[in-house]
Amino acid sequence: QDTPQFVVIPNSPSEIWQFKEIAGDLMIASSRGLFRLVDNQTQRIAGSGSDGYAIGSSPRWPDYLFMGKMGGLEIFKRENGQWKLFSQVPQIHENIRRITADASGDLWLSTEVQGLLRLHFIGDDPSQVRIHRIGVKHGLPQLIGNRAKFIDDTLFSITSKGLYSEKIAPWSDASDQTQFSPDARFGKQFSDGSMNVSDLNSDQHGGYLLQTSEGVQLLEKGHDGTFLNKNQEFRGLITSDESLYVHPDGSIWLPGENLYRVQTQAEKDYTQSFSAMIRRVAANTTESIFEGSFGKQASKQHSRCINSFSLNANRARHPSIELPTKCLNV
User: Fold this and answer.
1) Farthest CA pair distance, the chain
2) Local structure of residue 84 (DSSP, 8 states)
3) Are 86 and 43 in contact (CB under 8 A)?
4) What's the rounded Cα separation, in Å, for the pair 322 and 309?
5) Which end of the chain, C or N, has fewer beta carbons within 10 A?
6) What is the average pLDDT across 205-212?
7) Which of 268, 259, 263 is nearest to 247 (CA)?
8) Alpha-carbon distances of 43 from 8, 18, 81, rounded to whole Å
9) Strand ranges of the sheet holding 197-202, from the earlier edge strand across to the other edge
10) Tell me: the pLDDT tens digits for 294-306?
11) How confident is the model at residue 186 (pLDDT cuts 50, 70, 90)?
C-alpha cells in the first residue's frame, strides 16, 4: 500500500546520469547539461555545456557545485537563489564520471579511462587549483573504470578488480604520495580480483552495501569485528552495475532495467499463512520418507517422528524450517 506513484515531469531532459541535492536544490546532470528541479518543473542552468555526467561539491565551497562532463569540469555558483556558470577548469580535458570530496575539501574525480584526478584548491575561488593524476604507479589496478568514494575517513577506489583503499596522503606540490592497495576488510573475495565491485555505500545502520558482479552484498560487522554477509533480501534480484541509492528512510533503491526497492529493516509478520511446496520430509532417524517434486513416498507405512520440512523457496531466510517434533503414521 506504500508503493510510490511515479509521474512524468514535463520537458525534463533525457539521458540523466545523476541527481544530487546541493544547497537545498535538487540538481540534475544530463546529456543536455545541468538542470534544477523545482516544483516538478526542470530549469536548465544558463551557460552549462552538454554531456554532463556527474555532480559534486566540496565543504570548502558550500555555495558552489562542480559538474563533470565529457571533456572537462564546470563550476557553478549559487547567488540570490539562482545557479549560474562560474568557470571551467582549463587543466582538465578528461571525461569525468564521478566526483567525491575528502575531509579536507579536495575533490577526487573518476575519469573514464585515465585513472583518478586529485583537485587541490589553492586560491580565493574554486577555479584556482592544482591537480595530481593518480594511476597505476599509485597502486590502482588499472586506469579504466575506477570509481572513487570517500567513506568513514577512507578513500576507496571501486574497480572491476575489487575494492582498493588508502588513507589520503597530505598534499604535496611535487608529487602525490597516496598509495592504493587491495582492501580486504569486508572479506578476501571483495579484494582479490575475483569479483567486480561497482559501488559501495553505508546502509545507515552501521553496515555496508556493495554492488558486485555477484549481486548486492549487505555486510554487517559481527562481535569479533569481521563482516558478515546478510544479503538474503537481495537474492534473486537481477541488477545492473549502476549506483544503488540509500534513502533516508533506510530503503534501498536499485536502478537498472527494472527499479527495485528493498526494505531491509521492515518488520516481518511470520504469523501470516502462506502456500509452499514441500519437497522433502525427514524423520528424526534422518530417513527420508517424502521427497521430490512428484511426491514419492515410502512403499509401506512407517511410524516416524518428523522433525523438519524443506521448503522450495529460494528467497526464504530459512529454507529449511525446524518444527516441533510430530509423531505420526505415514
Assistant:
1) 89
2) E
3) no
4) 7
5) N
6) 90
7) 263
8) 15, 15, 13
9) 197-202, 208-212, 215-221, 227-229
10) 545 544 455 555 5
11) very high
